[in-house]
Write a structure and sequence with these properties.
Length: 187
């Protein structure tokens, strides 16, 4: 029997690097890894880490039935999901069911730029048997717990849609103190 795992962290907390190391370790044991990623903000079927390692993956859209997708890959021993915050709640339920048979490890953000949980991440917190934070620091040196969104001029964006596709926005992991300080700056 497997477990559903959720490894969450802020922007640039090396989630993808962690995922790719785990994939490497499984493959070293001759286990077959199925690497999946939601296609919501990308067309590139690759999981890339900032430190330079990458691996091909299978993209799926918001209507994909993950139970069926995994059934079509019967030799799979373990399932890894990158950017899991972009899964629908229904897809997290599907991964939870799959994890009865095989371990499923999901990596992603917990919260959006307005401190709200992504629906997929919220469902993962509800269902995962193992939840672990991948830690990172704010540029002030404190622990980062939030994700701030900035426009192309470096100005904090305070409101807007949860997911922006193909925009020029940038994200940075920040601590609570820095987040509130930036929020309180008059527009
Ligand atoms: Zn800070």
């Amino acid at each position: 029997m497997g477990k559903l795992y959720f490894r969450y962290g802020c922007m640039n907390s090396s989630k993808s690097a962690n995922l790719l190391m785990i994939k490497y370790n499984y493959e070293e044991q001759n286990l077959k890894v199925l690497l999946l990623k939601p296609s919501i903000d990308t067309r590139e079927a690759v999981v890339k880490s900032r430190i330079g390692i990458e691996s091909d993956c299978i993209l799926f859209d918001e209507n994909c039935d993950l139970i069926q997708l995994v059934k079509n890959q019967p030799e799979t021993d373990v399932i890894l999901v990158d950017e899991a915050q972009f899964c629908s709640e229904e897809q997290i339920d599907q991964l939870w069911r799959i994890s009865v048979q095989k371990p499923v490890m999901c990596f992603g953000l917990l919260k959006d730029f307005q401190t709200k949980m992504f629906p997929g991440s919220k469902r993962l917190v509800e269902l995962a048997e193992s939840i672990q934070e991948i830690k990172t620091v704010c540029k002030c040196g404190r622990k980062a717990t939030l994700n701030a969104r900035f426009d192309q001029h470096g100005k904090m964006i305070k409101r807007g849609p949860q997911v922006v596709i193909g925009g020029n926005e940038q994200y940075r992991a920040v601590c609570k103190e820095c987040y509130i300080q930036m929020m309180d700056v008059e527009d």
